[in-house]
Specification:
Elements: E1 5-12, E2 15-23, E3 29-38, H1 42-66
Antiparallel strand pairs: 1-2, 2-3
Length: 69
């Protein structure tokens, strides 16, 4: 799923739904899918995502620091 932004979020029957959005070829914002997470898993999923993004940032900084100017 391609995600450039997150859109509306709803909570219904214990399920959190968050729109995944992107800019289309027509220049308009489009829904590309939904993140669907059981509400009791939102904390762990958010923590896992934060950990993944922190690690990716570290790796990107390491690569950038190794490039000659």
């Amino acid at each position: 799923m391609f995600i450039e932004a997150l859109g509306n979020a709803t909570l219904h029957n214990g399920i959190l739904r968050i729109e995944a959005r992107m800019l289309g070829g027509d220049g308009k914002d489009h829904v590309t899918g939904h993140l669907v997470i059981p509400v009791q898993q939102t904390g762990p999923v958010a923590q896992q995502l934060a950990t993944i993004l922190t690690e990716l940032k570290k790796k990107a900084e390491e690569v950038a620091s190794q490039k000659p100017n």
